[in-house]
Amino acid sequence: MINRIVVGAHYGLRDWIVQRATAVIMAVYSVIIAAVLLVVRPSGFEAWQGVFANGLIKFLTFLFFVSLFYHAWIGIRDIWMDYIQPVGLRLTLHVLTATALVGYTAWAAAILWRL
């Protein structure tokens, strides 16, 4: 009988698809915001504030940031799992990374809905 050692969390295909989906969301947002900025051509703070006062733009911008942070989480988590061998250090880095990304998400929401 051969003993098989199973390692890793086997996120594989699901995370590959999620990374591609978040990349598409970010690319589409970039095209949309570029088109909006070409039409509006904001030149001062009030003009920029006006662009992001629109509820749809706020939502799309927040969706962009959530996609960005989730995309980053998958990439950084895989780096920690592949290259950091001590389990305690890897867990610490996972917790710090997740905490930072959740904090960034809350910060983005606070900035967007403060406008």
Brief account:
With 115 residues, this protein is mainly α. Helices cover 81% and strands 0% of the residues.
Report on the structure:
The chain has a single domain, classed as Fumarate reductase/succinate dehydrogenase, transmembrane subunit (3 helical TM bundles of succinate and fumarate reductases). It is an all-alpha fold and 115 residues long. The model has no long low-confidence stretch (mean pLDDT 90). The N and C termini lie far apart (65 Å). The protein has helices spanning 12-40, 45-51, 55-83, 87-114. 81% of the residues lie in helices and 0% in strands.
Which features does this protein show?
single chain; 115 residues; mainly alpha; 3 helical TM bundles of succinate and fumarate reductases; 4 helices
Structural class: mainly alpha
Q: Helical amount among residues, as a percent range?
A: over 70%
- CATH architecture grouping: Up-down Bundle
What's the number of structural domains? 1
CATH level 1 name: Mainly Alpha
Low-confidence stretches: none
Beginning-to-end CA distance, first to last residue: 65 Å
The general outline is elongated
* CATH topology heading: 3 helical TM bundles of succinate and fumarate reductases
Strand percent estimate: under 5%
Radius of gyration: 19 Å
Number of strands: 0
